[in-house]
Write a structure and sequence with these properties.
This protein has about 290 residues and is mainly alpha-helical. It has one domain: UbiA prenyltransferase (Tetracycline Repressor, domain 2), CATH 1.10.357.140. It is about 75% helix and about 0% strand. The longest helix is centred in the C-terminal third of the chain and has 26 residues. It starts with a helix and ends in a 5-residue tail after the last helix. The relative contact order is 0.12.
């Protein structure tokens, strides 16, 4: 397979967007280990994260291929544009799911036992918008598994201290749900026309943005509580403060009547949020936390 073909597949599954989930897996692993996790644990966690996300995106593209072809915003995606065949994406999906399960098996028995549940959440997300406007929360749960799964991968159990990572996972759920509501603003009319459920389609753009802002307020609160539960210090809390400012700016630049900067809010700012939080947590642990 040549590099050009690899690039097509990478764009198909939006490989660059792994930055949204991977930093939180790092955070969960660092919390569980109280520092740097072991080399092989790190390798298998990385492989599990990348393969799980690839499987989820492949399923998303397969499930939505027909809708993507009808939506002018997404008609250029790889399947409707004919650059990738459905059969190829099915193979990618199955291979990625197999790699994920193998990675889990190489970590510990509890991770392996939980792997079908994780796949069920990730692979069912594309269908959620067919029946519930809470589909944004469904996506959030998929990414919220990242820190929790990494914790279990390192510890092999839910034990002392796991409350902090559960709070962190809940914060990720709300963070993702909030920014996914913003992204859904781009397809309000299409979703309504096709009978698809999203919060903006159900409530209207203005009220949906209010809900998104409140959900992101909850994100900041949970991030703060997670730090306190883990005994993290001022460096981490400064990272949470920076996150709050970024989320505030994210909401300041998007208006129901002006969606030009939705992609900036969705992709750029949220990528910065995940990296900022990871850096703050890792530095805080390195400087002496968790307590």
């Amino acid at each position: 397979m040549d590099l050009e073909r690899v690039a097509v597949y990478g764009h198909l599954v939006r490989f660059s967007h792994t930055v949204f989930a991977l930093p939180f897996a790092v955070m969960g692993a660092v919390l569980a280990a109280g520092g740097a996790p072991g080399l092989w644990s790190s390798v298998w966690i990385l492989l599990a994260m990348v393969s799980a996300r690839t499987a989820a995106m492949a399923m998303n593209r397969l499930a939505d291929a027909g809708l993507d072809a009808e939506n002018p915003r997404t008609a250029g995606r790889e399947i409707p544009a004919g650059r990738v065949r459905r059969g190829e994406v099915r193979v990618l999906l199955l291979a990625s799911a197999a790699v994920f399960v193998l990675s889990c098996a190489l970590l510990n028995p509890l991770v392996l036992a939980l792997s079908p549940l994780a796949l069920a959440v990730l692979l069912s997300y594309p269908f959620a918008k067919r029946f519930t406007p809470l589909c944004h929360v469904w996506l959030g749960i998929g990414l919220g598994l990242s820190p929790v799964g990494a914790w279990v991968a390192v510890r092999g159990e839910f034990g002392p201290g796991s409350g902090a990572v559960l709070l962190l996972g809940a914060a990720v759920v709300l963070w993702v749900a909030g920014f996914d509501v913003i992204y859904a603003l781009l397809d309000v009319e299409f979703d309504r026309r096709k009978g698809l459920f999203s919060l903006p389609a159900a409530l209207g753009p203005g009220p949906a943005l209010v809900v998104s802002a409140l959900v992101h307020l909850g994100t900041v609160v949970l991030l703060f509580l997670a730090g306190r539960a883990a005994g993290l210090g001022a460096v981490y809390e400064a990272g949470v403060g920076g996150t709050a400012l970024l989320l505030l700016y994210e909401h300041a630049i998007v208006r129901p009547s002006d969606l030009r900067r939705v992609n900036t809010a969705f992709f750029t700012l949220n990528g910065v949020v995940s990296l900022l939080l990871m850096g703050a947590l890792v530095l805080s642990v390195a400087l002496g936390g968790p307590a």
